[in-house]
Design goal:
151 residues, alpha/beta, three-stranded mixed sheet, 23% helix, binds iron/sulfur cluster
Length: 151
């Protein structure tokens, strides 16, 4: 489980979790990006972020969740700047320096190492289901996030 409240207040951690969204997907997305668009984003009807993207890299999926095409994104940050709700964190789409470590959470063996890399119980290994009463939601089969969601 990833506590996005605490993660936002963390000064820096050079370990980033990535995930393949489907077996056919050749790219990895960071967990923070997936969780931000799924839970924090307000899913605007005429989404300013999509309209502002000069590279046509953003679209909504069938559930109305914004998805970024990593191969098209030129990391101009126009979407981050124009979002009226400050949904996206400033470093979300940055190209990270080579001292960053990426952990593939599609791989079970990386889960415990990833949890250990974060301080203050930001990432914990749990055996539970989502619990909306405690702001805990399921991102996918392996990952829960703790977040205030927009409804
Ligand atoms: S503008 Fe912000 S809140 Fe609206 S859809 Fe885009 S990311 Fe979500
Ligand atoms: S950062 Fe990427 S997704 Fe956002 S507006 Fe620029 S090209 Fe589009």
């Amino acid at each position: 489980m990833i506590d996005l409240y605490k993660l936002r207040n963390l000064d820096e951690c050079k370990v980033e979790a990535v995930y393949k969204t489907s077996p056919n997907d050749k790219s990895f997305k960071t967990i923070r990006e997936l969780a931000t668009f799924q839970f924090t984003c307000r899913k605007c009807d005429n989404a300013p972020c999509i309209n502002a993207c000069p590279a046509d890299a953003l679209e909504k999926d069938k559930n109305g969740v914004v998805v970024r095409a990593v191969n098209l994104c030129i990391r101009c940050k126009s979407c981050i700047t124009i979002c009226p709700f400050g949904t996206m964190m400033d470093d979300l789409f940055q190209v990270k320096t080579s001292d960053y470590i990426y952990m593939n959470l599609s791989d079970d063996s990386e889960l415990e190492k990833f949890a250990a890399a974060y301080p203050d119980d930001i990432v914990t290994i749990v055996d539970m289901d989502e619990d909306p009463g405690k702001n805990i939601y399921k991102l996918n089969d392996k990952i829960l996030v703790k977040e205030h969601i927009w409804e």
